[in-house]
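step=predict obj=ER lumen protein-retaining receptor C28H8.4 isoform X2 n=269
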Amino acid sequence: MEALGSYPISFGSGRVPTTSDGDESKRRPNRRRAFQAAGDWLRRRSTAAKIGLAVAAAVAAMFVLKHTVTNHNYLFIASETIHAAGLLILAYKLTTHKTCSGLSSKSQELTALFLSVRLIFGSIMEVDVYTFLDSINFITTIWVIYMIRFKLKNTYNKTLDNFRLYYVVVPSMALSLFIFPHVHYNAVVRVLWAFGVYVESFSMLPQLLMMQNAKMIEPFTAHYVFAMGISRFLAFAYWVIQCDARKVEDAGLEYIFSQKKINKQYALL
């Protein structure tokens, strides 16, 4: 009995503990190879095929967002929040590294333009949390423009940032006069709304062209562009879903008014 007492006795289930570290280490290279194969396959596609895949992915993502997000206003709030995060990345670069190399002042100027337009028609429609978020992003964007144009102008490469702003402003202005959302406000608000959306859609084009001209991407600039890409997509999804919802609402109101009109005519008979 004393001999038995010297050995530890376990009253557990008797199962030998197993570990999945070996299996997990085997799965990781397989996943990495799968991602590499997908990336190689995508790089071999033509430009038209890549654009088609991007459009299909965007449409699928908007469909998922429309049917999974209960309150679509969260999309706009998320877009503004990510936009602010991208501006914080720029602020960190400008204040810490003391350089604006790789940044396009033209993109910031287009961003300030559509934010100012949105603040104007937002103030006319209703001052709410969206107006507050736009105000913060507008002030920060003006500060970024000041840093690029004046404080750190010695590090700004004006030669590479050669995009003409009227390539975006003039077509957006012309298009907004004919294609605008049918909201329950006057024509000025409708045109301003459409103009802001069109300029916002192409505001990152100067930055992308500057990156292409420079043949290199700095880490902070890449993070900023990635954040802006997500922000622009969420904003675009918000406007598309909202316009679609307003069309359904207007159709419903039109049906109700027509039914009331028919009932009144029957009452007169």
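step=describe
The radius of gyration is 27 Å.
step=end
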